[in-house]
Amino acid sequence: MGLAPDALLPTDIDETPRKGETPRTLAQRLANEKAEAAAKTVAHRVELEGAFIVAADTVVAVGRRVLPKCELLEEAADCLRLLSGRQHRVYTGVTIVTPKGAQRRRLVETRLRFKRLSAADLDAYLASGEWRGKAGGYAIQGLAGAFAVKLVGSYTAVVGLPLYETMSLLDGEGYPVRLGWANRT
């Protein structure tokens, strides 16, 4: 989008799905909670006064089953085996908090189908380590992009931040999203 954040504020929230919570509801709730946590931090930092806060969270699901953000090799292998040769959905919630405290939200749903992964695909991808910390055990913007047979929806939402929706939310709240575009080289 041509924007650089003034600060990155990691948040420490519990990302465990609630009983009966759907993947789409989970993605939006986590984005909201991250935005609220960041807003509390911003309230105590004078250099960030007047800041717009952007928070997002991505959930990969097969049906109602939410796949984890993988930290263990076996966890990633299980996810990739499940996704192999089948369709899944990626839900990305984005929440904007304005300097006046108003919240604006969007949820983006993308359908994605992976090729049937061979043992060589699986072994090589797992060896890359790229899966670590990624929802569903893959990063579409990296090597796993070669697994995507079909994508219907937003590629940037699968990466983790739906650019069109984020820009629209910021623009709608008066943030000058195109300010630096003319001076880009």
Which strands sit side by side, in order, in the main sheet?
Answer: 2-1-3-4-5
Separation of the first and last Cα atoms: 14 Å
Shape: globular
Tally of individual domains? 1
CATH architecture: Alpha-Beta Complex
Low confidence ranges: none
Q: Characterize the quaternary organization of these chains.
A: single chain
In helices, the fraction of residues equals 25-40%
Number of E strands:
5
Order of helices and strands: HEEHEEHEHH
Largest sheet: 5 strands, antiparallel
Q: Which CATH class?
A: Alpha Beta
The DSSP helix count reads: 5
Range of strand content: 15-25%
* Whole-number mean pLDDT: 94
Q: Determine Rg (CA atoms, Å).
A: 18 Å
* CATH topology title: Maf protein
Which structural class matches the secondary elements? alpha+beta
Account of the protein in words:
30% of the residues lie in helices and 22% in strands. It has 185 residues and is α+β, with helices and mostly antiparallel strands. It has one domain (23-183): Maf protein, CATH 3.90.950.10. A five-stranded antiparallel beta sheet has the order 2-1-3-4-5, with helices on both faces. A hairpin with a 2-residue loop joins strand 1 and strand 2 (65-67). The longest helix is centred in the first third of the chain and has 20 residues, at 23-42. The two termini are 14 Å apart. The model has no long low-confidence stretch (mean pLDDT 94).
